[in-house]
Amino acid sequence: MGAFVHLCLLGSGHHFLFLRLTTDEIDMMISPFEPTTLPSPDRRRADGQAGFTLVELLVVLAIIALLATLIGPKVLGYLGGARRDTVQMQIRNLSSAVDLYYLSTGTYPTPDQGLSALVDAPAGQAGWSGPYIQSRSALTDPWGHAYVYSQAGTGYVISSLGRDGKPGGEGEDADITSDTP
Q1: pLDDT tens digits for the chain (181 residues)?
Q2: Which residue among 31, 120, 165, 169 has its CA within the 20 to 30 Å range from the CA of 23?
Q3: Is 15 a domain residue?
Q4: Is the N-terminal amide bond of 131 cis, ω within 30° of 0?
Q5: Number of structural domains in the chain
Q6: Residue 114 lies in a domain
């Protein structure tokens, strides 16, 4: 006859896990309220080889699934926050590089030149003494999208369009911009 698994979890401090198979070989109950008798770890299968029973594997899988359900969202939330913090730091570094560019050339890069002007000298740009950043990879955010450079009045703005690479959004999809006017 096939095996049936019944899984019951109760909350409110009364944690209870009950697994039962239809075979007469195994009837196992695990509860913090009762002592548990576990099978001997040196138990052998009928052919003489050591192994895990279906119940043992199902218990391990149930515990892993429960932990992943409880811990997974927290870990992903921390990862998203770390990416946003990284973007803010990279935008500050790029802003410093743009300011150095301005000090050496007397102008900010044009929107057509963009942030590439920090790595490669624009044609005909007098006073360029870069590169102002070490590598071209610094021009992309943690989600793999290029930072957006635009001029605003007499200054500039550097932006990341977030995880989705589109203007607007919420959470990890929200835009992050420099505060340079």
Answers
A1: 455 545 454 444 444 445 444 444 444 444 444 445 555 555 555 666 677 888 889 999 999 988 888 887 777 766 767 888 889 999 999 999 999 999 999 999 999 999 999 999 998 888 999 899 988 889 999 989 999 999 887 889 999 998 888 888 887 888 888 875 5
A2: 31
A3: no
A4: yes
A5: 1
A6: yes
